[in-house]
Automatic annotation (TrEMBL):
PANTHER family: GTP PYROPHOSPHATASE-RELATED, RELA_SPOT DOMAIN-CONTAINING PROTEIN
A Gene Ontology BP annotation from the UniProt entry: guanosine tetraphosphate metabolic process
UniProt protein name: (P)ppGpp synthetase
Residue span, RelA/SpoT domain: 52-187
Length: 357
């Protein structure tokens, strides 16, 4: 029963906390699973992490004392500490990019009951003497109809706080907590912290712009011709340096060409990036038309070799990357001698001699 006796209410809260610790952890894990499933089903892009915690009981009491106790006692209003703790269970959602925060929040608003929303970014931007870059905070609970179901009985009286941050915001928040005595430091140090905060914000925006520019390059590669006619020499006297540069092989046009020839294979972006870099180390001027021509001219031969190679042992593998390596080797044996290992090169040459004989 609520009272104005802080020590009594503190003991009551401790008793509740200790006796419900297992349930708090179970509900926290349940909320994490729900949110992960909702975000996976929604079109909000990749989410880096969904993390959770049950707030330390001493931190709970300190927060109540700091934010509510004096006001409630001055008003003569009895209280129970747990009723003022919407963040007893906390969930943190970390997104790669800042512009994912609002879409993620919209998904949560559609599936949970909103208790409160706090935009920490706007609050900090309007206060010169405050530091931090902490994203969007939401206090949520299960909708009443869902909370009334027997399977969600454990959740019914346990709201939770969600913090939605970008990777950069999360990094700043972690470092910000390491800066002690922020309210008491000299103005010179405050200015340095403000500069640092601005650099983090700039990094957030730049990562987003780089992502957007990369997506534009991918879209451009998808609509461009796969390769020049096989009789093209890859350029002409009147071709500008910029146009020639655009035809140089890169991860974007490689993906376009490779997917055309290997439709059932999933080319992962980071592997493609490294593979193209390996090619350019051997031939810095290698063009996308060279890649296209090498596959047109030699893929049939390589596929015949692949079939013979795999027939020798069920444990052998021969991926599309391996096929492309062999095509490049046939396209220019001198330049791409090292695209194959010595053993692979010797086996391939031996098979070619038998096939030709």
């Amino acid at each position: 029963m609520a009272s104005l006796d802080f020590e009594l209410e503190k003991r009551t809260f401790y008793k509740f906390y200790d006796s419900n610790r297992a349930r708090l952890n179970s509900v926290k894990n349940g909320y994490m699973r729900m949110i992960s499933q909702l975000l996976k089903a929604a079109e909000v892009g990749e989410v880096t992490a969904v993390e959770g915690r049950v707030k330390d009981r001493e931190e709970c009491v300190k927060k109540f004392h700091r934010k509510y106790q004096s006001k409630l006692e001055a008003a003569g209003q009895p209280y129970e500490i747990r009723n003022y703790l919407t963040d007893l269970i906390g969930i943190r959602i970390i997104c790669p990019y800042e512009d994912q925060i609002v879409p993620v929040a919209e998904v949560l608003k559609r599936h949970f009951r909103i208790i409160d929303v706090t935009d920490k970014i706007s609050a900090l931007e309007s206060t010169e003497d405050s530091f931090g870059y902490k994203g969007l905070h939401m206090d949520l609970a299960l909708p009443e109809a869902r909370a009334a179901l027997p399977k969600f009985a454990a959740y019914a009286d346990l709201p939770f706080e969600v913090q939605i941050r970008s990777l950069i915001q999360d990094a700043w928040s972690v470092l910000d907590h390491k800066i002690k005595y922020k309210k008491s430091i000299p103005n010179e140090l405050k200015r340095r912290i403000n500069v640092l905060s601005a650099l983090f914000e700039l990094a957030d925006r730049e990562f987003k712009e780089i992502r957007n520019a990369t997506e534009e390059l991918i879209q451009k590669a998808r609509v461009e011709p796969i390769g020049e006619p096989t009789g093209s020499n890859g350029g002409g006297a009147g071709e500008t340096a910029g146009a020639a540069s655009e035809k140089t092989a890169n991860a974007f046009n490689f993906m376009r060409i490779a997917r055309h020839f290997f439709r059932d294979f999933e080319f992962e972006d980071f592997k493609v990036d490294g593979f193209v870099e390996d090619i350019l180390k051997l031939d810095r001027d290698f063009k996308k038309s060279d890649l296209h021509r090498s596959l047109i001219e030699h893929l049939k031969t390589v596929r015949d070799y692949r079939e013979a190679y795999l027939a020798e042992s069920a444990e052998r593998t021969f991926s599309p990357y391996t096929s492309i390596r062999h095509c490049l080797y046939l396209y220019n044996r001198e330049t791409f001698a090292r695209i194959l290992s010595p053993g692979a090169r010797e086996r391939f040459e031996a098979w070619l001699r038998r096939a030709e004989g």
